[in-house]
């Protein structure tokens, strides 16, 4: 006998409310359960609609945490930390409370688990199954067959999802949740500290509620106003810079398995050979894939900006030159299983950063390869486009310009992220991006550098921006 919707909702922690019951949310802060985080951290929840176009229907609860301002007499308000779909309370406020010490002189620091990280509590198991190996289709028939197989996974997730949440994990929905949090916090305007992909819903918030923005910090954030193709030139410049650093290291360090070799020549031989004759790799755990130059380029673009990965990458290149592509195969199969999982597709693909369809894939890849023969055609317009090929709906939050009249923003980015974060921030007049001279992703939290946090905290507190061209170097 099927379970009635109200009973099922109760089991899932959902609520089905009439429209009249929707009122301005209020927050009651209490000690965090289970001893999460530092002693002074407080927790609460907020209830938001699954579908903001039908607020009287099913709702979900989002967890919030705050580190209260150290001196209430100096308190200016709250800063909302917008993380990359998680890890939310424990991962941001609990593990790195010291990062916010100076900010807490004037603000409550509020973190939350967005719907994209809370979704696992509500969605059925079919939404969390691994995706499929993302093969590089060499013709339209192969592309459409792979897209159809991925679409079947998505359809099963949607059919099993009694909440409708799988269709409302886009950044516009996350932004509307942020507006509900602003209201619940009692803030006239929102002050945001957005990390990584969390900057995409933060930018969506600025587009939807431009008059409600007080200040925005975008740390290591892609430019969602233009999509992956619009960011490609900047990304590839960063990859070329990282590859030069890698080859220089290889020439002078015995830790490089390729020392004494012409690394660029070897790289070009590998991408040429796999481009012409794909290499089949099979894993008992993850399946089988036909590796091509697209896969090699995608992994290079992910790994090269991380100096700590240089020895591992050099070793993988040496083995591949001898016919052993196991490292590349395992990495690509793992990425495929994660990125093309129905739940993962539901959180990224509705934002429309990638163009869908075989013609778009071919056109974008050629565009990218004209910019860089050695690395063009890799991540966003390659693997991510393939991962989203089974998501056939129109984007909810497609790339589009930000509105005029926004207050100047501050961008932060290490070597790997600065080019795309600067692109985004430069679209808001009067804004500035600070570059950190290192490969750290999310520099405010991970660089542990008072230069970076000092500029960010000063801007968030006094709305004072640093000079254009400011550089922070590791101590």
What are the main properties of this structure?
17 helices; Peptidase; signal; AB_hydrolase_1; Pept_S33_TAP-like_C; AB_hydrolase_fold
Task: Give a quick rundown of the structure.
Residues 386-472 form the Peptidase S33 tripeptidyl aminopeptidase-like C-terminal domain. This protein is of the alpha/beta class and 475 residues long. The chain contains 17 helices and 13 strands.
Written description of the protein model:
Residues 104-269 form the AB hydrolase-1 domain. Keywords: Signal. Residues 386-472 form the Peptidase S33 tripeptidyl aminopeptidase-like C-terminal domain. This protein is an alpha/beta fold and 475 residues long. The protein has a domain at 232-387. The chain is built from 17 helices and 13 strands. The protein has helices at 5-12, 88-94, 115-118, 140-160, 171-185, 199-208, 227-252, 263-276, 293-303, 310-321, 326-339, 342-348, 358-371, 379-387, 418-425, 443-446, 450-462, and strands at 15-16, 30-31, 42-49, 58-67, 77-82, 107-112, 190-195, 213-219, 279-283, 287-291, 410-413, 432-436, 471-472. Strands 1, 2, 3, 4, 5, 6, 7, 8, 11, 12 and 13 form an 11-stranded mixed sheet that branches. The longest helix has 26 residues, at 227-252. The protein is globular.
């Amino acid at each position: 006998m099927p379970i009635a919707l109200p009973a099922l909702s109760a089991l899932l922690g959902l609520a089905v409310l009439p429209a009249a019951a929707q009122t301005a949310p209020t927050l009651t802060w209490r000690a965090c359960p289970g001893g999460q985080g530092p002693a002074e951290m407080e927790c609460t929840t907020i209830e938001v609609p699954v579908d903001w176009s039908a607020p009287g229907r099913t709702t979900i609860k989002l967890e919030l945490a705050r580190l209260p301002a150290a001196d209430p007499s100096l308190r200016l308000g709250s800063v909302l930390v917008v993380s990359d779909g998680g890890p939310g309370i424990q991962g941001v406020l609990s593990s790195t409370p010291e990062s916010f010490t100076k900010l807490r002189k004037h603000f409550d620091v509020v973190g939350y688990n967005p719907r994209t990280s809370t979704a696992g509590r509500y969605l059925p198991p079919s939404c969390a199954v691994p995706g499929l190996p993302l093969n590089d289709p060499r013709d339209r028939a192969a592309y459409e067959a792979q897209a159809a197989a991925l679409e079947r996974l998505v359809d099963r997730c949607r059919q099993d999802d009694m909440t409708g949440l799988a269709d409302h994990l886009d950044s516009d929905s996350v932004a509307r949740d942020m507006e509900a949090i602003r209201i619940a916090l009692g803030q006239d305007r929102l002050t945001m500290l957005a990390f990584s992909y969390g900057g995409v819903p933060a930018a969506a918030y600025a587009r939807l509620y431009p008059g409600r923005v007080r200040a925005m910090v975008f740390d290591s954030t892609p430019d969602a106003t233009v999509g992956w193709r619009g960011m490609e030139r900047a990304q590839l410049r960063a990859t070329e810079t990282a590859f030069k650093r890698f080859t220089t290291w290889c020439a002078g360090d015995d830790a490089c398995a390729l020392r004494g070799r012409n690394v660029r020549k070897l790289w070009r031989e590998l991408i040429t050979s796999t481009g012409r004759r794909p290499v089949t790799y099979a894993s008992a755990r993850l399946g089988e894939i036909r590796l091509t130059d697209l896969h090699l380029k995608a992994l290079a673009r992910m790994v090269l900006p991380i100096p700590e990965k240089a020895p591992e990458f050099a070793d993988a290149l040496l083995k591949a030159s001898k016919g052993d592509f196991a490292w590349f195969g395992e990495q690509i199969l793992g990425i495929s299983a994660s990125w093309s999982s129905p739940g993962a597709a539901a959180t990224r693909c509705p934002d429309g950063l990638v163009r869908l369809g075989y013609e778009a894939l071919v056109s974008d890849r050629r565009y990218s390869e004209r910019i860089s023969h050695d690395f063009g055609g890799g991540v966003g317009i390659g693997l991510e486009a393939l991962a989203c090929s089974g998501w056939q709906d129109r984007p909810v939050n497609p790339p589009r310009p930000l509105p005029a009249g926004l207050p100047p923003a501050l961008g932060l980015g290490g070597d790997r992220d600065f080019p795309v974060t600067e692109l985004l921030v430069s679209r808001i007049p009067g804004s500035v991006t600070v570059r950190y001279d290192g490969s750290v992703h999310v520099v405010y939290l991970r660089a542990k550098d008072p230069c970076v946090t000092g500029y960010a905290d000063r801007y968030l507190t006094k709305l004072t921006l640093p000079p254009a061209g400011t550089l922070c170097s590791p101590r």
